[in-house]
Amino acid sequence: MKIYENVSLKNFSTIKIGGTARKIYFPESIEDIKFIIKKSKDENKKLIPIGVGSNTIFKDGILDYIFVSTKLLKNIKIQQNKDLFYLTLDAGVSFKEIINIVKKYNLEGFENLSGIPASVGGATAMNAGAFGTEFFDIIENVLWLDLKGNECLSKKEEINYSYRKTQFQNEGFVYQVTIKLKKSNKKIEKVIKEHLIERNKKQPLNLPTSGSTYKNPPNNFAGKILEEIGFKGKRIGDIGFSDKHANFLVNYSNASFKDLMKLLESAEKEIEKVFNIKLEREIKIVE
Ligand SMILES: Cc1cc2nc3c(=O)[nH]c(=O)nc-3n(C[C@H](O)[C@H](O)[C@H](O)COP(=O)(O)OP(=O)(O)OC[C@H]3O[C@@H](n4cnc5c(N)ncnc54)[C@H](O)[C@@H]3O)c2cc1C
Q: Which of 10, 29, 116, 244 to mutate to test the pocket of ligand 1 (most atoms within 8 A of CB)?
């Protein structure tokens, strides 16, 4: 297994903010992950899995955690049973790679998720979703490791998940996920293309961003709330809420973590004052 020391975390987060990781592990097998979990216990340091880093923001300075990048966990197994396709995917497989399979076999079920810049592990932990579909809608089972390093194969029904939340945000490491898709009569490539155009219109994809900052509260939209308090386009230093989509933070050039936290805290204070509600952060902040 590869282990790198003193690595810039900017390269592990799509918003390109963050200091230096003392160490990052790159496991290539389930045994490597067991070894890392033991290391985390022995050194009494928190284990932090990193996928694409598209919902994660790291603080500046030195961070001394057990960081685990899933970049090298890339196995894919495809099984077909008549019209049904079961894809067993390692945590580091990207959604882009799933799209290639979906297009090749013309499969439906994944198209609404197609533009999310996720890894399988990150999307499972976050229960990522778009256009009314959540990743857990198509998940069959998850092979994961608990904090003691035990292998657990859980069926979807046995897993705690809800809107952008799962048990894996607090415990364990998602190693492998099986999803179920179906042969389609529609031209899936065209549907996916339309989705990507739609996302491109709404999201600030020309700047480094970390996706949705806050979860939508019941019957409302975080972006709308931020717009109503005047935070659409609001900027401190090089960090701002996008003027294209208020719920997306964007890094205009060389944003600092300190400015980012200042911006979040002032938005949260204002939302509480005006609407008397607390928005829950969707982004994962590693301090
Ligand atoms: C331009 C853009 C658009 C986006 N659009 C959407 C959208 O439409 N819908 C949506 O839901 N999200 C969206 N996001 C947010 C983000 O893409 C999703 O949350 C995605 O699922 C994160 O995947 P990741 O691999 O980048 O996870 P990361 O950001 O690397 O990690 C997210 C969390 O999961 C944990 N994690 C990662 N891998 C594992 C693992 N193997 N085991 C256990 N825990 C793990 C991390 O520790 C962290 O807490 C968007 C982000 C961007 C930048």
A: 116
Q: Where residue 95 sits, what CATH number does that domain have?
A: 3.30.465.10
Residue closest to 137 by CA, chosen among 119, 149, 123 = 123
Helices (H), 111-186: 120-126, 135-138
Are 163 and 218 members of one domain?
A: no
CATH of the domain at 16: 3.30.43.10
33 lines ligand 1 (CB under 6 A): no
Q: Which residues contact 200 (CB under 8 A, 6 or more apart)?
A: none
Which contacts (CB < 8 Å, 24+ apart) does range 156-162 have?
A: 161/127, 161/136, 162/127
- pTM beyond 0.90: the answer is yes
pLDDT digits (tens, 9 = 90+) for 105-158: 999 999 999 999 999 999 999 999 999 999 999 999 999 999 999 999 999 999
Domain containing residue 227: 204-286
